Amino acid sequence: MTMFASPEDARTRLGAVDYLTDPGIATAVFLADALGKPLLIEGPAGVGKTELAKAVAAAASAELIRLQCYEGLDESRALYEWDYRKQLLRIQAGVDGWDEARAGIFAEEFLLARPLLTAIRRDEPTVLLIDETDKADVEVEGLLLEVLSDFQVTIPELGTITASRRPFVVLTSNATRELSEALKRRCLYLYIDYPTPERERDIVLTRVPGIREQLAEQVVRTVASLRALELKKAPSIAETLDWARTLIALAAEELDEETIASTLGVVLKHASDHTRAAKELGLPGIGG
Amino acid sequence: MSLLDRHVGFVRALRHGGLPVSLAEGLDAARALTVLDLTDRETLRAAYAASLCKRHTHRAVFDTLFELWFPVGAAARADADPVGAATGERPDGAAEGGASADAADAEVFRDRLRELLLGEDDIALRRLAREAVGRFGAFDGPSGASWSAHMVGRALDPRTLMAGLLRAVLGGRLPGGVAERNARRMIQARVDRLNEHILSDVRRRLAEERGIERVAETAVKPAVENLDILRASRTDLIALRREIQPLAQRLATRLTIRQRAGRHGRLDFRRTVRASLSTGGVPLTTHHRPRRPHKPELVVLCDASESVSSFAHFTLMLAYALREQFARVRAFAFIDTVDEVTRFFEQPGGDVTEAMRRLTAEANLVRLSGHSDYGHAFNVFVRRYGDVIGPKSSLLILGDARNNYQDPALTALAAMVTPARHAWWLNPEPERDWDTGDSIAGVYGRQISMIECRNLTQLGRFIGELA
Fold first, then answer.
1. Whole-complex ipTM
2. Contact at 8 Å (CB) between A19 and A57?
């Protein structure tokens, strides 16, 4: 039971939920689904890695389950936990003997399923998003290995729970550290880079209603020029969209030097980047 | 060659090119081929990339090899040929037409190219590249007929089209400013695409004649992190500079993890007793003081002469990107005399590229000749900044130890090394070149441990150990 019939199908259906793909993205999404393998997405911040997982969920009318990684994330937050307070109540309330109580308190009823277990136990189509995997500790990767290669979770008291229907798994990473080879080997890999100006223009046109094509063209060309400079933080797609919206709000007809200079704060967020951009592009009156 | 053979050969070529492709990943790729419609080459490329190429820096190698092992098929070639016949693709004896016919043909191609560079049709651009290689690329090399991308580039000469194209894109607006810059970038990007297409078609033709493996060996360039810094071209240097910040970030993350791993310092008695109150006075868990992280002071002394300045730049950039990991970073540069260059880096949120430019322009590094003189530089350093190095500092000397046959000033070097906690010399030359010509790496190497450091991988590893 796959979600997409072909890369072309993936492209059109993701396009229908306003996510514009390129051949690389469409093929990787299709393959991850067809081969039942997790998809590891890397790339600069703000190019739509998380957005892709959401778009897949929307396109396949699946539910999105999200596990946000952070330092100190552990088993009981990612996988499952016994609800010990409820267990305690059960023991205090019950008058029956110890044997029955012991059998009773390790039942489904007292299990708190966390994102990974929830995703595996669902029978309906599911997209599991493990966001910012590189932020989690190295041990969490070990935890993910069992889940992602066999799609099963072992709970000592209950036995092994195997997925009846494999979720579509997306892992994202900003590459602040190298993920382990073992994890990479089990995943398909997709690197999403800044889009080509042509694709970015189409993204702006779909996402910012009411923008004129010529203005959109100017915005993405200027953003491309900015990305070519050596900046601390290159503008992301999200910032391009913000810029386009700003220009519409200001009712700007053209993106000339004056307009760039007065709205540069929308795309560049470091003082040194501003000075550099002003110098290289020859903008008036910044940095003084 | 069957599809399976081609697949196996491709995987082997990738491994040979430095990509760690495991057996399981090879199987994944083969499995992917069974569910895909194989007539679309870009889909095939994406499928292979997704299952075999798991690090972005390997992508260039991957693409080069893919172009060789899966060249544009016969179908596309038949497609291209009618047009090619019209402009006269002449595989053998091409020279007979004479120079004037060549020039006339080149004009026809340039007219088409002008159209294509204004449009967005990548497939047509590739077809043009392919025809142009067929028409202009053939020459008789020392070992029989061969193909050259350079000759195609000379015939088409896309750079001379720039002015006309700029006018067309700007469409009556005044040149200059952001609009022109954007237009220039756009056209340049397409010219780059064209050159890539030409190069890949040349390689394809060569591979047909000489076998894929032989062409692959020369075509594959090492990934950015393994590039030899001293031999890097200008475009390589830009790519390298872009890698520094991510590298620094990865290192910093790893260092913070390492510092936190050995987190147990001395027992915090007060907190332990306080916490034990909630368990009836029994200290079930002990609390510890956080350990004070050990942060060394870094003193960098670098050779800023022409021959090794790029290496010095990268190391300084990396050291400054990681400055939170050090108590203090002080930088000195020399050619034949020394100057402190710390001031160029210390503005908050400073721009390292700018700092580098000012360093070369403003710092006082040259006394006489502008050739490196390690001996004099060391003497001046000891005299002027000798007290900078103390028991907390790690001394880092960067340079190729090519002293232009001057006095090595070994006593001065000893006076620098002895008070320091650690001292290293990073030499960007390959170890086999040490002690050749005017290099006195061996002489200095007896006083201070000298380490070969030629690419970002080695540099990253070293700085990581240091902090």
1. 0.88
2. no
